[in-house]
Amino acid sequence: MTRKLGIIALESAQNAGNKIDSILSEWRGGEHFLIPAQCPRFGTGEAKGIVKESVRDRDLYILVDVCNSSITYKMDGQLNRMSPDDHFQDLKRVIAACNGKAGRITVIMPFLYESRQHRRVLRESLDCAVMLRELENMGVHEIITFDAHDPRMQSAIPLSGFENVSPALQFTQSLLTEYEDLKIDSEHMMFISPDEGAMDRVVFMASIFGVNIGMFYKRRDYSTIVNGMNPIIAHDFCGESVEGKDCIVIDDMISSGGSMIDVAQQLKARGAKRVLVFATFGLFTNGFEKFDKAYEEGLFDRLFTTNLIHQKPELKEKEWYCSVDVNRYVAAIIDRMNKGESMTELIRPAKRIKEMLDLYKSSGENK
Q1: Bridge partners, residue 107, by sequence
Q2: Residue 284 gets which letter from DSSP?
Q3: Average pLDDT for residues 190-215, to the nearest whole number?
Q4: Contact (Cβ atoms closer than 8 angstroms) between residue 347 and residue 330
Q5: Is the pLDDT of residue 31 over 70?
Q6: Residues 198-213: what's their mean pLDDT?
Q7: Which range has the worst mean pLDDT, 142-156, 212-226, 269-283, 305-319?
Q8: What is d(CA 176, CA 182) in angstroms, rounded to the nearest whole number?
């Protein structure tokens, strides 16, 4: 049964919200669903949430990009860039402004806030779990995220909806569109995990493609702590020879990028033909200089990330970069949930990827 739909896109996700609304409008006969909302700030930097239309009894979807650092606000007359903490507070303000009137609230948070602080070592906070409990206590019915750093975090809210969506289909589409000469078999292709945490993603993709996997594990200095973490000493490789093969490295995010470039360098040193990188979220917290240099040195051939979070304008101009558009996918998720239909094929799109690969292989054989 289709419920009356409403979409609120916070300022951090305004561009994506407009595109998703246009897609849904195209599918649903021209009707638009965006509800205007904002979080104006006082001179102290404090804020309030305002929803400018009624949300009573609506099936409400709130979009937020906690990684959008391009947005600024004034505090004591000085410009501050919005941090993930600021974006999360604004999300709670908008939920609070709905005053419990919405029929159901779903938060679409592609990059799960504090997902990297997901486990406790010694005396540490469990920020991701606390965040999820806060949203649950505020009446959020379901949380939609993409490629969560550790999907086991959903255990913090076992009685609430939590969907961890894989963008594997969109990465496959982009890869097959970008390259027409791929040989998809174990003699010519491998999927590579840059660390132990990415193994589930790699095993899923490799199983569908029908190729083998390799894995790097991070050797750390556990006697030292730098910036709250044990520094990485080296990346050691486990797996068969990569010589002459296209190696596809998969991870959930690129932060500074140092580990990914080290992995690419080692693969090239082992004789890999091409190194292609899939990362759901491209943060590039230290800029692009090291990636430009690594590309010039031939360490990798193409880097794919989604547009689920804010993309820095200069990134889109890079010769080595390929943007993976996921807006139609998010629109399909909203459409299907609003109609009360199954989400299984969207969350784990193994069947559609397999069909795409079969078509790609048959078209190559017919050339």
Answers
A1: 62, 143
A2: -
A3: 92
A4: no
A5: yes
A6: 93
A7: 212-226
A8: 8
pTM of the model: 0.92
Q: How many CB atoms lie within 10 A of CB 293?
A: 11
Question: Does position 145 have pLDDT exceeding 90, yes or no?
Answer: yes
State the Cα–Cα distance between residues 59 and 339, nearest whole angstrom: 10
Ramachandran class of 147: left when φ > 0, alpha when ψ lies in -120 to 50, beta otherwise = left
| Structure tokens given for 253 | 């995010």
Helices (H), the chain: 14-27, 84-97, 127-137, 168-178, 199-209, 258-269, 289-296, 313-316, 327-338, 344-347, 350-365
Q: What amino acid occupies position 346?
A: L
Residue 8 CB-density burial (10 A; 0-12 exposed, 13-18 middle, 19+ buried) = buried
- One DSSP character per residue, 188-252 reads TEEEEESSGGGHHHHHHHHHHHT-EEEEEEEEE-TT--BTTBPPEEEEEEESS--TT-EEEEEEE
Query: How remote is the C-alpha of 248 from its chain's centroid?
Result: 18
Q: Is the pLDDT of residue 326 over 90?
A: yes
Cα→Cα distances 201→146, 204, 205, 213, 282, Å: 12, 5, 6, 11, 17
Q: Which domains can be identified in the chain, with CATH numbers? A: 5-165 (3.40.50.2020), 168-325+351-365 (3.40.50.2020)
Enter the tokens of residue 345: 């094929």
The closest alpha carbon to 194, from 270, 115, 247, belongs to 247
Nearest-angstrom CA–CA distance, 341 and 40: 37
Q: How confident is the model at residue 249 (pLDDT cuts 50, 70, 90)?
A: very high
Q: What is the pLDDT of residue 290?
A: 94
